Amino acid sequence: MSGELGQRFEGEGDSASPLDRKPILELKGISKRYGAVQALTNVDFEVYPREVVALVGDNGAGKSTLIKCIAGTHTPDEGRILFDGKEVHIHAPSDATRLGIETVYQDLALCDNLDVVQNMFLGRERVTPVLPPVVELLSELAMEQHALSVLQTLNVTTIVNVRSRVAGLSGGQRQSVAISRAVMWNSRLVVLDEPTAALGVAQSEQVLALIRRLRDQGLGVVVISHNLHELFSIADRIVVLRLGRRVATFDHESTTAEDVVAAITGARGE
Ligand SMILES: Nc1ncnc2c1ncn2[C@@H]1O[C@H](COP(=O)(O)OP(=O)(O)O)[C@@H](O)[C@H]1O
Ligand SMILES: [Mg+2]
């Protein structure tokens, strides 16, 4: 069981050099309107394995709309989506999940009255119809073991007791549970909407460390954040949206916060 998570992450391999890497996900020419509001215009967006892409832009720039198109809660009016180079149709969240795309929204969607294990298996409990209650007990133990191994693989050390209720956890611990839950099901790509917005400095650090580990395990990670300092500490690439268009892309190595701010505000673009 413990091998499951490691195995699938390792699938990307260490040998993939940046030059021969192919994107996991490519959006091409995505446009989306809400009535009279043109939320996205002809947006291309791509995510490679083993990278963190930051998606930034002012309020109303189209960030949430873009990730909703990836997550399947919205369908673009125009444009194509490719996954592993093949065209796919993401019309519902279940389509995204099937591809291995998981999204963690700001509300986290955790159940406070349930414990960590129950939350991690929510809606995907291991049910064994034969021989209750013995087998039920066994699958309960198996779920607990699996939850523990996932947290261990991701080096989430802040959650000491996986049988503690989520209500009693700190904001950082809750975010860690939500992210771990998202990536434990064959995920290839995880989208995080403002994962540290509600957190203090120390807890943000824990979550940023977890995001780096997801990347190091081979996942593609998309992060929406308003905190440029934070983005500079985790992002490999920074994609800027402005008024529904992609206006700039920065390599984290060769850019400054001033460049990024200029693109966000429109003082300079692509
Ligand atoms: N459900 C909706 N109905 C109408 N307009 C919307 C809706 N959602 C977003 N918009 C508009 O689409 C544009 C992009 O919004 P959004 O994707 O939420 O941007 P961001 O997440 O970058 O703040 C904005 O002008 C916003 O007002
Ligand atoms: Mg938004």
- Strand percent estimate: 15-25%
Mean pLDDT value: 86
Would you tell me which CATH topology of the domain at 7-114 and 186-265 applies? Rossmann fold
Helix content: 25-40%
Which oligomeric form is depicted?
Answer: single chain
What's the CATH class of the domain at 7-114 and 186-265, please?
Alpha Beta
Main sheet: strand order: 6-7-8-3-9-10
The total strand number stands at: 10
Q: What is the name of the CATH superfamily of the domain at 7-114 and 186-265? A: P-loop containing nucleotide triphosphate hydrolases
**Measured distance between first and last alpha carbons:** 47 Å
Order of helices and strands: HEEEHEEHEHHHEHEHEEH
**Gross morphology:** globular
Give a topology summary.
Blueprint: H1 2-10, E1 25-34, E2 37-47, E3 51-56, H2 63-71, E4 78-83, E5 86-88, H3 93-99, E6 101-104, H4 116-120, H5 134-153, H6 171-183, E7 189-193, H7 201-216, E8 220-224, H8 228-234, E9 237-242, E10 245-251, H9 257-265
Parallel strand pairs: 3-8, 3-9, 6-7, 7-8
Antiparallel strand pairs: 1-2, 1-4, 4-5, 9-10
Helix pairs in contact: 6-7
The structure holds adenosine-5'-diphosphate and magnesium ion.
Adenosine-5'-diphosphate is lined by residues 34, 37, 39, 57, 59-65.
Description:
With 270 residues, the chain is of the alpha/beta class. The protein has a domain at 7-114 and 186-265: Rossmann fold. 35% of the residues lie in helices and 23% in strands. The chain is built from nine helices and ten strands. Strands 6-7-8-3-9-10 form a six-stranded mixed β-sheet, with helices on both faces. A four-stranded antiparallel β-sheet has the order 2-1-4-5, with helices on one face. A hairpin with a 2-residue loop joins strand 9 and strand 10. It is globular, with a radius of gyration of 19 Å. It starts with a helix and ends in a 5-residue tail after the last helix. 42% of the residues are buried. Adenosine-5'-diphosphate is lined by residues 34, 37, 39, 57, 59-65.
